[in-house]
Every structure is written in C-alpha cells, then in structure tokens.
Amino acid sequence: METGYLVLETGDVFEGALIGKNKASMGEVVFNTSMTGYQEILTDPSYAGQIVTFCYPLVGNYGINLFDNESAKLHLEGAVISDLCMAPSHYQSIKAFSEHLEANGVACLTGVDTRAIVKKIRHHGTMKAIITQSLDKSLMKSFVHDPVFNTSMVKKVSVKKIKQYEGSGPHIALFDYGYKKSMLDALVNAGCKVTVVPYCTTFPEIQSLNPDGVMFSNGPGDPAALKPMLPEIKKITERYPSLGICLGHQLIALAYGAETNKLLFGHRGGNHPVKEIESGKVWITSQNHSYVVTDKSIDQEIFDITYVNVNDQSIEGLKHKKLPIETVQFHPEAHPGPDDTQYIFERFLNTIRNAGEMKHAITY
Ligand SMILES: NC(=O)CC[C@H](N)C(=O)O
Which Gene3D superfamilies match (predicted)? Predict the structure, then answer.
C-alpha cells in the first residue's frame, strides 16, 4: 500500500495508507457513527460528492455480500478508516472491502486516527477535503474551484427514464433523487406497484401515470438546488397522498414556503433518538443528512411538527394539517440502522387506502 494523505480545508493533514483510486479525490468530508453497515453506506446515493469518515474503528471485517447494496454503484468520493480488515470472515462475503473500492475506483485512506478527524469536523463543521498521494501545492488551489459544492448532484444519480415494478397493491410513484433500494423494497414487499420517476418529473407527467400516492426519496446535496422543481412538487402533493423522506421531506417543506439550513456537522449514524410529539415515544433512527428544515420558518397553520431530534431539537417530521402529506427527516427504511420506524410506510399505505375521495379535492 502506498502512503496517502487526507488534507482538510483547514490545512490539517492526516497521513495513512492509500487503497482504491490512486489519484486525488475531492469531496465534502463528513463522518458516520454507525457500528456496522459500511456496504449500505458505500452504495447510498445521498453520499455523492462526500468523503465519509467511518467512526467505528474496524471496517471490512464481514466483507462485501450480494444483498446489502442500496444501489448498483458506489457513490461516495472517498472513505477514511482507522483499521481496515483485509481478510474478512463471513459466510456471505464474496470479496474484501479493499477489492470492492479498487474495482469501483473509490479512494480510501486507512490507518488514520479517525477520532482526531471527527474532532476537527465537529469543531469546524463539514468541509472540503482531498484524499491525495502527494502534497502538491497546486492541488490545494482546487479547493477554491470545486464544482461539486455549487451544483445539484441529484441529476447525476437519478434515473433518466421511468422504471416499473409490478404489484397488486396501491400504485406509488417514487421520485428518484437518489433513492435507497430499501425504500423501494418497503413498498414492493407491501405489495405495491411502484413507478420510479426521474427527479424532474412534472405534475402533468405524474397525472398521466395515475398513481395512488407519491413518495419523495432521499438524495445528495443542498435541497435548495432543486428550487425550480418546487412548484411541481407543491401541485403533486396537493393532489396525491405523499410521503417525503430526508431530501424528500426537505423539498416538500420548501415547496410550502419553509426554509432549510445546514447543520454544523450533520446527523449520520444508526442511533439518532427522535421524539414523536403525539405519543411522547422516542424512536432510535437511522440518519444521513446535513440540512434541516428551519423550525421558525414552518407555518404552523399549514404543518404540525410530528418529530423532533432529542439531541439538538431539530425538526424531524411534518404532517400537513388538511392534506395527506407526511414527511420525515430520518430513514424509516433503515439499512443501515434500526427499522423501528418502518411503521411509517404502513401508515402511508393506510392513508392512501383511506384517501380515495380526496383525489378530486383539488383540480387543475
Ligand atoms: N439522505 C438524504 O436524503 C440527505 C438529504 C440532504 N442531501 C442533506 O444532506 O441534508
């Protein structure tokens, strides 16, 4: 293995061993506190443009299997690991983490003090970083010119054409902003027919599919980058029972006039406690996001706040007061992390079953 470096925007340099892609890789450095689930994290499209620091010290010990991919590709820009296991042991393992990254051209720096990196991120916030083989000065200049931080990555990860999955239950249009397969699985396993649609699908295009409900998926980047789509999202949610998850939640809130802001270092992990306001119950949730809906920007004439984060009181869920629209910031589909909040999918499907008459409530 060759020597490599993680260089942060602050100028801090961490030396380690480089595997995967041997040239420079740039992204926004974030950290994830999950103890397992590295394969799901590698393939979650919401990590596009990011370098993920794994907080759990041992990664790769159970290898890579055929079942845990959340999408067909690895989307992250790079991985930073304390202790990478090169000889995995698990009956389902088909290859090692290092082989998987090498085959997919993703840079990985291992043998670094990830605790020190996490401390930097917690203090300065998520920031630009490079995984590199050389400490060439010209590389550092590219921090200033990185397009990744200015454009929407949703376009890159979304399907280009609609894709259908047959089922005998309700028909759901699933907006693909970079959806995780577990989200599709939750619907298909419940018997739904699912039509996955590109991120830029308009209201008339959704109407022509005649769905019973619409789901707005997770996805990478700043939700504000999808501003041109907000009027369409508003019309769609006024017409069809809707569920928004993570980026989908943020977009629905924006469409109804709320604002989003960026947390200092986000929530990424498998044990984020979230309080359900109505029942007072605390659910342990899977999370992966930087942005949140700004609480003061929510019009409480339009939305009830349904969930809040126990650690920082940030908004974790909304419910429209009149229309069947529900949104959650966390990931009920889990993978990785606990599936305690899977009931949100069941509730959505029950809402659809009870909402038949609403179809004609608002017409255009
Ligand atoms: N997982 C997601 O959908 C993330 C949403 C958004 N990209 C954020 O970071 O907040």
Answer: 3.40.50.880, Carbamoyl-phosphate synthase small subunit, N-terminal domain
